[in-house]
Amino acid sequence: MTHITFQLSKEKSSNFVLTDGFMNALFSISENIHKKEKFKERSNGSSRLVWHITKADLMLMCTLHICFNSNGELENVSRHQIYQKLHSLYEDPCCDDQFYIAFDKFVRLGFIHEIQDGIRSEFKLNHFIDPATNKITRMVVMNPFVFKKEFTDLPIAAQKLVFDLIRKTGNNKKNDAFYWLSKGSGILKQLHKTYVYELKNIVNILASLKIDGISLLKFWKIDNQKGTRLPKLTMKLNPLLTEEYVKGMHYRQVLPGRKLNRRIVMHLRDLLASNLIGDFEYHNEGKDFYLLATKLKNKSRKFIKYIVEKIREVYELERKFPEDIIDLITFELKHKTMSEIIDISKRTGVYKFISPRKYDENRLFEFASAASSYGKREFEKLCKSAFQVFEKHFTIVPAHHTKQYAYSNLLDLFIDADTLRSDALLKQKSPEAYKKLEAYAEDRLQKDKEDPINIRKWIQEQIDLLPKWTNIADIPLGFKIEDYILNKLKHEDLPFFK
Question: What value, to the nearest 5°, has the Cα angle with vertex 402 and ends 398 and 404?
Fold first, then answer.
């Protein structure tokens, strides 16, 4: 039998924990595989099965448990930063599209609760805290061999069986795990298998896997239990690869969120105190102060003073801080900064990627709010660089057929209009510009009674003068271009577009 062997540098600090509640919730979706329900992350993307577990799902599950805090929460971090963490953990990580599909599916299925307001982002893992006890569900310590390429290259069914085996045995080196092999249920259903021989093939693959010369499985067997006709699979993970929970050990690498600028915080406190509204710092449990300080980052002292005076005016009018005071402040900020940022996005070409499917003023403000934290010259330079990346990865052509150039059915009766449309398509001319030609030609044909031959010749000459088409933006759902643009300030070589 061929043995799969790879080297692993064992470091206790690289162990991590998964929660039994989350694993159980994820693996339970296989019970609905018969529904064949699908979803699309991109308008022109492939349909994906909602109730089907993928390798990217397992990678995302592990990454979330590493970078979220002990309450299953993460704040002020983007999806893209989570993907960067996944990319750094795995030797052969899933591609960006697979990550975003998995993340979107987790949100759809309620595994992740996501809040995005343009300034603050918040993620929370469901099935992480037991609502009955308000404590973390049972934790299972994982060995980092799951990050190795040799493991992620295994069939998805084999990977799922390993995770389930570790979940069932827990952290006890003496525990065995067993599965009743009832047809159409249990582990066979979870692995999408029908026959016992298919399961044997999977177990044989795992039995051949060696890690640092150590077999992954200590033993396995399939036999019939006395008093029943059902066969039973018994497995035991090698104790040398079973990690025990050590109290006080740090098993997480929580991603740091965006930090407030100390200078802004101190200056804002002084201004609030001098305007006799220092209590604003503690309004709404300090959340409004945090949001205000974030919004005012890189703003001039004159601008900050103007905003604080607006807060004082509202307070003097109502003798309290309104619950929607951040909305009022946002209104002041919105119309002052938004137009400048949007103008930059239009000049550099990235505007069409902000909200490509429909005009969304809230999305434009979200983009402008993130960008307003940086100098305009520097931001414009970054937009120019990012445009080349977006144009290459996130666009589709506006036309694939001559029908998309057709405006006038009348022309089809008098001239060979389809040949002209084919010429425009071949030369990648703007469909909208070409349609204007046909509209004008139809008018000449009907009102001026002009010779169709002359009209055809005129259209042929005008085609070369038409502007070339502009590719249509088609970004993944959930991806926000500012995450990439602003991260370029810190990362010269992002793995997202490799």
Answer: 45
Share of the chain above pLDDT 70, in %: 86
Enter the tokens of residue 163.
């995770």
Mean pLDDT of the chain: 82
19 shares a domain with 77: yes
Residue numbers of the domain that contains 453? 402-463
Tally of CA atoms within 13 A in the half-sphere of 315 that contains its CB: 17
Say how many domains are in the chain: 3
Write out the two tokens for 49: 């099965």
The DSSP call for residue 258 is: P
- The per-residue pLDDT for range 277-328, each reduced to its tens digit, is 988 988 876 778 878 888 787 777 888 888 898 899 888 888 888 888 888 8
In a domain, 488, yes or no: no
Residue 472 pairs in a beta bridge with 396
Residue 338 falls in which region: left (phi positive, over 0), alpha (psi -120 to 50) or beta:
alpha
The residue out of 209, 241, 273 marking a domain boundary is: 241
Identify which of 255, 241, 256 has the alpha carbon closest to the alpha carbon of residue 15: 241
> Which is it for strands 139-142 and 135-136: parallel, antiparallel or unpaired?
unpaired
User: Element (H or E) spanning 237, and its range?
Assistant: strand 231-237
- pTM of this prediction exceeds 0.70: no
What is the pLDDT, as a whole number, of residue 51?
74
Q: Is residue 227 part of a domain?
A: yes
Query: Is the Cα dihedral 201, 203, 204, 205 positive or negative?
Result: positive
CA separation for the pair 81, 257 (Å, rounded):
10
Relative to beta strand 129-130, strand 135-136 is: antiparallel
User: Is the CB of residue 78 less than 8 Å from the CB of residue 122?
Assistant: no
If one counts every other C-beta atom within 10 angstroms of the C-beta of residue 199, the result is: 21
pLDDT digits (tens, 9 = 90+) for 411-448: 888 888 889 999 999 999 998 889 998 888 888 888 77
DSSP 34: G
Domain membership of residue 468 (yes or no) is no
| Burial class of residue 24 (count of CB atoms within 10 Å of its CB; 0-12, 13-18, 19+) | middle
Tell me which residue of 141, 362, 161 sits closest to 252, measured CA to CA.
141
Q: 18: closest CA among 134, 160, 137, 152?
A: 137
Question: If you ran DSSP here, which 8-state letter would residue 403 be given?
Answer: G
- The reply to whether 170 and 292 lie within a common domain is no
Identity of the amino acid at 361: E
First to last CA, the chain: 37
pLDDT in tens, 442-488: 888 887 788 888 989 999 899 999 998 888 888 887 788 888 887 75
Place of tokens 């060995």: 143
CB atoms within 10 A of CB 307: 19
Nearest to 371 by CA among 405, 343, 401, 408: 343
* 200 in any annotated domain: yes
Q: Which helix (H) or strand (E) holds 224?
A: strand 217-224
Residues 24 and 130 in one domain: yes
